Amino acid sequence: MASVDSTGSSVSGRLRSGDLLYTGLAVALLLGVWSVGGLEVSTGKVSQLEAMNGSTVLLPCTYSSCIGIKNLYFSWHYNDNGTMNKYCEAVIPIEGVEPKVSVYHERVEFVGSSKSNNISILLWNITFEDEGEYICFARNPKEKNRNHSAIYTLIVVDQMREVDNTLTVIIVSVLGGVIGLVIIVMVIKALVVHFLLKDDEKNKECLVSSGNDNTENGLSGAKADNKGTPKA
């Protein structure tokens, strides 16, 4: 009986371990799907902007989510040497509903729209003090309030740097010279072929005319011989 009990307990233990294994795999799969379809925040392909002092710049930020949003919270912060200054914040109740944005900076304007998943802002009349990192932050309660953010770096300059086009000019000049040389060679080749064809035609005409002359001379000689032969 003891052996039967031990066998039964071992079988039930294996079943429990198998159930735990399947449960763990299912949880891992769900977490993987959740992470793939979760919220993503982006400031675009280029996360850095160089702008002139006194100009107005766009700080771009968009979000996307395959599982949808509900009460999506977002905000913009400026990293002032480690101190995070909040520039604006809002909550988007559901997709397509425009948020009521609270702005905390006099030169900041919200220009985004939930209809295009856009939460970008404008920064007016920038100064050298505005240079630094700007953080676009978002949190979706449907993801158990996981935090997402993207950084956009602003560089303020007194004047825009001139782009050195020397290399471009050299490349264009070389390509233009090569193309011009190819065209000249093609024109010369066409002229040579044209003159050669003309010479061939002249040679053919000369051969034909000389052949005709020989034929005429032969016929006239034969006629003269026939006339000079006396009748019997």
From TrEMBL:
GO terms for molecular function: sodium channel regulator activity; transmembrane transporter binding. It comes from Perca flavescens. Keywords: Disulfide bond, Glycoprotein, Immunoglobulin domain, Membrane, Signal, Transmembrane, Transmembrane helix. GO terms for cellular component: voltage-gated sodium channel complex. Residues 208-232 are annotated as: Disordered. Residues 44-153 form the Ig-like domain. Residues 209-218 have a biased composition (Polar residues). InterPro entries: Ig-like_dom, Ig-like_dom_sf, Ig-like_fold, Ig_sub, Ig_V-set, Myelin_P0-rel. This is Ig-like domain-containing protein. One of its GO terms (biological process) is regulation of ventricular cardiac muscle cell membrane repolarization. Pfam families: V-set (PF07686). Signal peptide: none annotated. The chain crosses the membrane at residues 20-39, 169-197. The lineage of its organism: Eukaryota, Metazoa, Chordata, Craniata, Vertebrata. It is found in: Membrane. It is a single-pass type I membrane protein.
